[in-house]
Amino acid sequence: MQQESGGDMLRRMSTESSSIAQKLKVVLENIQAACEKRPQKLQYAAPQLVAVSKTKGLDMVMEAYDAGQRHFGENYVQELDEKGHDIELLDHCEDIKWHFIGRLQRNKVAKLLGVPNLYMIETVDNERLAKAVNDTWGRLNKPAPIKCMAQVNTSGEENKSGCTPDTAVELARYMRENCPHIDLAGLMTIGSFGHNPKAGINPDFEKLVQVREEVCKALNIPTEDLGLSMGMSADYEQA
């Protein structure tokens, strides 16, 4: 999902190889092939790959960076804080862009927002968390709002974070109208882990598309201005 232009983001690439550059090349080629099959109405932006680097060493992050990857996703605030402040990584990866994709507690917001090169928080799932992010970012006097996504629990699983599809409009409205230090970049879902891509389109993807239509209509936002973050290693091409 290219956030700036509102396209669909593909994420969740684990960098687990002695040849990360080659694996990255294959994934990007698969993404390009999938893009060419999309209908014309979805050709307004190229997908953006976010490589999940949680539990991976700095050497692997830097290898992926050297291969051209810029967007990386982390699940844990402490791990991202350590990686983000690492002197060697800061020197080597000057324009790295960190996405936080894990469950975020309000008492960890300040630490997260202090991470250098934090690009986006994809897991804002309630108004209290949105307010905490907004207020903290505002106190930091940053030159631009922090990009955030509203996380939607499209699968309805109790162990998943995210607002319900029925309350997504309300959360998005709150972020747009009450959080001047937040840039609502889109909607995110993790989706069900049990869906087999060979069985057909993932219903979680369809649900998130539907929710985006509802949000855009309610808030008068052009569809191309609200991105979608979805898809993992097994189903990124379908996403």
TrEMBL record:
UniProt keyword Cytoplasm present: no
Cofactor(s) this protein cannot do without: pyridoxal 5'-phosphate
Domain Alanine racemase N-terminal: 31-236
KW Protein transport (keyword) present: no
PROSITE patterns: UPF0001 (PS01211)
Residues modified to N6-(pyridoxal phosphate)lysine: K54
Taxonomic superkingdom: Eukaryota
Key words, A-Z: Pyridoxal phosphate
Gene Ontology MF annotations: pyridoxal phosphate binding
Gene3D superfamilies hit by this protein: Alanine racemase (3.20.20.10)
Ranges annotated as spanning the membrane: none
Signal peptide boundaries: none
SUPFAM superfamilies to which the protein is assigned, alphabetical: PLP-binding barrel
Family: Belongs to the pyridoxal phosphate-binding protein YggS/PROSC family.
Name this protein carries in UniProt: Proline synthase co-transcribed bacterial homolog protein
Source organism per UniProt: Elysia marginata
Organism ancestry: Eukaryota, Metazoa, Spiralia, Lophotrochozoa, Mollusca
